[in-house]
Amino acid sequence: EYEGDRNSEGERHGFGKARLPNGDTYEGEYERGLRSGRGTYRFKNGALYTGTYLQNKKHGKGVFFYPDGSKYVGDWVHDQRQGYGEYLYANGDTYTGEWANNKRHGQGTYVYKDTGSKYVGCWVNGIQDGPAELIHLNHRFKGRFLSGKPLGHGKFIFDIGCEQHGEYIQPVQEKEEEEEEEPPLPLEPIWKVSEITKLTPWSPHDEEPLVPREADAVTEE
């Protein structure tokens, strides 16, 4: 069902309202039969997108409300979260920063609602990876992350005015003779202290990078 403007060829063109066969609805601008310009798309599962379109795809600035109560406000490219945006998760956590292929990618800040802790730093394909700072209520950690875990040299900075330097080491798993049904969970990196000092200027960028990785292209759902 469609009611609205059309061009001389009879294509939807200008402003209109449409109900799609699957029960979704769209109200907004069309260009030569395709959603282009500003519009609001309501999914029958309760999700809602309001923002700009280009040739039927979310493209430009827009807000997406997800059925679980989460929300994304920011840039879109060809239906993907890409560019800069803020995501409010259903559990109250927030991420503000760069996106690529629908994933957190680049520089960004993730705030954990339950603890008030903040991760400020690099992301690769949705995972904490690269130089970063993990800020807690009365201390913070500065170092590098690899695949979501701290690894290598870093330091804890305490508000009382001192620092604990050291490194995170990945423990090696011992092989067991018996075959296990489930593969064991990877061991958490272990923090090994080297010294405690007064506050010093130092950034994780001084460290040698671990393994740089590129963003993977994500296939459309």
Automatic annotation (TrEMBL):
<keyword id="KW-0677">Repeat</keyword>
<feature type="compositionally biased region" description="Basic and acidic residues">
    <location>
        <begin position="204"/>
        <end position="221"/>
    </location>
</feature>
<keyword id="KW-0282">Flagellum</keyword>
<feature type="compositionally biased region" description="Basic and acidic residues">
    <location>
        <begin position="1"/>
        <end position="14"/>
    </location>
</feature>
<dbReference type="GO" id="GO:0031514">
    <property type="term" value="C:motile cilium"/>
</dbReference>
<dbReference type="Pfam" id="PF02493">
    <property type="entry name" value="MORN"/>
</dbReference>
<feature type="region of interest" description="Disordered">
    <location>
        <begin position="201"/>
        <end position="221"/>
    </location>
</feature>
<dbReference type="GO" id="GO:0007286">
    <property type="term" value="P:spermatid development"/>
</dbReference>
<dbReference type="GO" id="GO:0005634">
    <property type="term" value="C:nucleus"/>
</dbReference>
<keyword id="KW-0969">Cilium</keyword>
<dbReference type="InterPro" id="IPR003409">
    <property type="entry name" value="MORN"/>
</dbReference>
<dbReference type="GO" id="GO:0051321">
    <property type="term" value="P:meiotic cell cycle"/>
</dbReference>
<protein>
    <recommendedName>
        <fullName>Radial spoke head 1 homolog</fullName>
    </recommendedName>
</protein>
<feature type="region of interest" description="Disordered">
    <location>
        <begin position="1"/>
        <end position="27"/>
    </location>
</feature>
<dbReference type="GO" id="GO:0035082">
    <property type="term" value="P:axoneme assembly"/>
</dbReference>
<keyword id="KW-0206">Cytoskeleton</keyword>
<keyword id="KW-0966">Cell projection</keyword>
<keyword id="KW-0963">Cytoplasm</keyword>
<comment type="function">
    <text>Functions as part of axonemal radial spoke complexes that play an important part in the motility of sperm and cilia.</text>
</comment>
<keyword id="KW-0469">Meiosis</keyword>
